[in-house]
UniProtKB/TrEMBL annotation:
<feature type="binding site" description="proximal binding residue">
    <location>
        <position position="400"/>
    </location>
    <ligand>
        <name>heme b</name>
    </ligand>
</feature>
<feature type="region of interest" description="Disordered">
    <location>
        <begin position="417"/>
        <end position="459"/>
    </location>
</feature>
<dbReference type="Pfam" id="PF01231">
    <property type="entry name" value="IDO"/>
</dbReference>
<dbReference type="InterPro" id="IPR037217">
    <property type="entry name" value="Trp/Indoleamine_2_3_dOase-like"/>
</dbReference>
<keyword id="KW-0479">Metal-binding</keyword>
<dbReference type="GO" id="GO:0033754">
    <property type="term" value="F:indoleamine 2,3-dioxygenase activity"/>
</dbReference>
<dbReference type="InterPro" id="IPR000898">
    <property type="entry name" value="Indolamine_dOase"/>
</dbReference>
<comment type="similarity">
    <text>Belongs to the indoleamine 2,3-dioxygenase family.</text>
</comment>
<keyword id="KW-0408">Iron</keyword>
<dbReference type="GO" id="GO:0034354">
    <property type="term" value="P:'de novo' NAD+ biosynthetic process from L-tryptophan"/>
</dbReference>
<dbReference type="GO" id="GO:0005737">
    <property type="term" value="C:cytoplasm"/>
</dbReference>
<dbReference type="GO" id="GO:0046872">
    <property type="term" value="F:metal ion binding"/>
</dbReference>
<dbReference type="GO" id="GO:0020037">
    <property type="term" value="F:heme binding"/>
</dbReference>
<keyword id="KW-0349">Heme</keyword>
<protein>
    <recommendedName>
        <fullName>Indoleamine 2,3-dioxygenase</fullName>
    </recommendedName>
</protein>
<dbReference type="GO" id="GO:0019441">
    <property type="term" value="P:L-tryptophan catabolic process to kynurenine"/>
</dbReference>
């Protein structure tokens, strides 16, 4: 397929630069004297990075996007799925994609100033984009995959307002993709239901639920970080004993996060996860350089946009923890032991890159958060609790590495289920070591992150 229109309707590069004053904000911290106010960054005291309520549907003028999303499940299957159900649905799938190609190009003016509806539009359009791309028969793909302008242009426009990548992200799959089971009850892991599920599997649903459990547990950490940021003098006796108590609390929270990670072994089937689920989240660069790129039709300079796809590496809660403890993923500080050769070979820009897939306000929250490490270094009574928190995070990363070994690395050489056709790549097409959906070489990356964590320990 070729670009159907020579007209460039939106220029990604011209407007994609981060301008905090332009971003749509839901609320400010008026009336509160604190210097650091998470609400300013759309971080809620009870729901954290989740919006406090499920996102409202788009207005009638944009219902064509909502309708297209609602029709997708059960009609669209991965292009490589050769199962009887997938084959039976091929004609319906082609009709759906045809409808997307001929969908009118809609303006986003009606939602331009409405943060929640912009988020909803991003979730709806990015999900449609991934349904479209990953169901497209290989025979229809030439050098690159063309995302029709009816989706690409408004998705790029809302992404610029939200300052987020124009592709499926962790926010679309986990933060913005749920509804209450009982709307009269507060947000909790037992009172939320995930709505869109690409693969229709329990593995996908349970991955979202486990990620949500991490986010909700993370709210307790955000409370600790806010308390720290609003200390007038972090070195007075009262403040240091509060910090010591909070660092000890943090150890407990990180251990609970680790239990959530470990519990996924019982709820997320590795084979289903590898072959049916994560394929849907892949972006243009996830599979390495030997796979077709994506062209955002109607968007000029789209080659400068981040199209890596969704990864839990985009969870702001986890990044906040790294910042608070000052984990040096970039290997910029002189810490011991010196990084190994493998550590040096890892993708040091990965964590920074993942931030570009977060909503701009959440990224801004992270940019304004400070670390407790320097104070802990200067204060003998804080060294031990600080080190305990670092070591708890190191153990969490060890558990995560074990999970990734089971779910990704060992699966890369496993036999696909009977319905999934995998064309054996030629020697020149082989992509090398296992990649995550974020496109990184997984094992080296995660071990480098674990080692960088351990290096934060104060000697
Ligand atoms: C079946 C469970 C999981 C699997 C198979 C998995 C897989 C991966 C992979 C392959 C990466 C490498 C980066 C990339 O995406 O390219 C990664 C990174 C990451 N994942 Fe997971 N993940 C799982 C669960 C989670 C959960 C529940 C969270 C928390 C919300 C999480 C948080 C992270 C973070 C923060 C990174 C960045 C690297 C780091 O901080 O060490 N993961 N994960």
């Amino acid at each position: 397929m070729r670009l159907s229109s020579p007209i460039h309707l939106l220029d990604w590069a011209a407007t994609a630069a981060w301008d905090a004053s332009q971003v749509v904000r839901s609320t400010t911290c008026s009336g509160k004297l604190s210097a650091f106010c998470p609400r300013t960054y759309d971080v809620d005291p009870k729901s954290g990075f989740f919006p406090p309520q499920p996102l409202p549907r788009l207005p009638d003028a944009l219902s064509v996007w909502e309708d297209a999303l609602q029709e997708a499940p059960g009609v669209l299957f991965l292009a490589q799925d050769q199962g009887p159900q997938a084959i039976a649905k091929r004609p319906a799938g082609e009709r759906w994609r045809q409808k997307i190609r001929s969908m009118p190009l809609k303006s986003i003016d009606a939602i331009r100033d409405d943060l929640r509806r912009l988020q909803r539009a991003h979730m709806v359009l990015a999900t449609i984009m991934h349904y479209y791309v990953h169901s497209l028969p290989q025979a229809d793909v030439e050098a690159s995959i063309v995302v029709p302008k009816s989706v690409a242009v408004p998705l790029s426009a809302v992404s610029q307002l939200l300052q987020i990548a124009p592709v499926l992200t962790f926010a679309d799959t986990v933060l913005w993709n749920w509804e209450f089971i009982d709307p009269t009850q507060p947000l909790s892991i037992d009172n939320m239901r995930y709505v869109n599920n690409f693969s229709g599997t329990q593995a996908e649903n349970n991955f979202y639920l486990a990620s949500a459990a991490v986010e909700l547990k993370g709210v307790e950490m955000l409370d600790i970080f806010e308390g720290f940021m609003n200390l007038r003098d972090a070195t007075d006796t009262h403040a240091t004993s509060m910090l010591a108590r909070d660092l000890t609390r943090l150890v407990k929270i990180i251990e609970e996060l680790e239990s959530i990670f470990v519990s996924m072994r019982n709820t997320v089937d590795p084979h289903e996860f590898y072959w049916n689920v994560r394929q849907w989240w892949s972006g243009a660069t996830s599979k390495g350089p030997n796979h077709p790129g994506w062209v955002l039709e109607g968007v000029r300079s789209a080659d400068q946009a981040d199209l890596g796809g969704a990864s839990a590496g985009q969870s702001s809660v986890m990044h906040a923890l790294d910042i608070f403890l000052d984990i040096d993923h970039r290997l910029q500080d002189a810490r011991t032991p010196a990084p190994s050769d493998n550590n040096r070979r890892a993708d040091h820009g990965f964590m920074d890159r993942m931030r570009r897939y977060m909503p701009g306000l959440h990224r801004e929250y992270l940019e304004n958060l400070s670390s407790v490490r320097e104070i802990a270094e200067r204060t003998p009574s804080l060294r031990e609790p600080y080190n305990a928190a670092v070591m708890a995070l190191k153990r969490l990363r060890d558990s995560h590495i074990r999970i990734v070994a089971i779910y990704v690395i060992s699966k890369a050489n496993s036999t696909p289920p009977a319905n999934i056709r995998v064309d054996k790549p030629s020697a020149s097409q082989r992509d090398g070591p296992s990649r995550g959906t974020g496109g990184s070489e997984v094992s080296t990356l995660l071990k480098a992150g674990r080692d960088a964590t351990q290096r934060a320990v104060l000697k």
